[in-house]
Amino acid sequence: MTLSVILHFFSTFLRCLKTFVSALTSVLAAIQVVTSQKFALQKVVLQKATVIHWLWKGLLVSICISSPFVNANTGVAFVHGTGDSSDALNDYWTRDMVFSVTGGLPDTSKFVVVNCNFDEYAWSNEAGGCLARQISSFIERESISDLVVITHSYGGTVMRWILSNPTWDRRHPVIINATRSVTAIAPSSLGTPLADAVIDGNRFERVLGWILGYRSPAVELQQEDWMAHYNNTLFYGTAGRPALPVTFKSIVGTDVESSPFDSDSYCGGYAYQVALEVTQEWLDNCSDGFIECRSQAGAGTVWFYDVDRTRRREPLSHHQSRRPCFNLDVFLRNDL
């Protein structure tokens, strides 16, 4: 049982204990009333009232002890970023990452790795519809009542579409009701200037194809002005907009390191670090090489900035944040 589950259980137990103590106090008060030699009518009325009160408290205790969380069936869903994925377990996240994180589950088989066409708009059937179908099927198949969703990059935007639009699809409320939280790793919540660069057709198109795609609808949506428009109309969770119905917390990548003399530069693959180091030159000082920190922190709340928790305060590039680099997998595992 993980630390977070233990803490939640302990909190629930304390609430139950408080209710029980209150009920016990009522019973003791009833005994005092009954044994006193005051007016008989007062004794009867108070006794009946106290018994009713005690029965009500007992009912609350029963409900508390049998609350859904105490008996929660915890599961986790991994949601990839931009791209048309058919094997995200191996190609996007890697088995090392997924199996390390799911080690924190009470039942390590309760997970799903989503494979959808995230080259499309978040609200399309190929993207948002596919995500809703796969997650809701997982919830129903495994009877999941306590779902943690882990997203990366554009996957956070697609998930936010579902959370922001419960009436769009009958499966959206099923997902919302079962979800404890969404951990959005490096989400493109406010878009990225690099999407504008790709759409403009300049030299970034060749450099970014491996991670972003080529002028796809998803890339269009991740342009900063597009995201500003849709954040104000279709999506919740950003400044000035209604809050999301579940916790949406981001992990923010702040830098890219590509020194060939630093072994940490090789976590996840050195070539990716070099490419992201190049693209970082056209972004703010605080970025993971693909998405600026302000965009990653633009929706929901910030769980943490990489260097505040990672091993040796190492930054997580946009590629490393989907790999078991610098104890990222440990933080995710302990949060289940």
UniProtKB/TrEMBL annotation:
It comes from the Bacteria. SUPFAM superfamilies: alpha/beta-Hydrolases (SSF53474). This is Alpha/beta hydrolase. It comes from Marinibactrum halimedae.
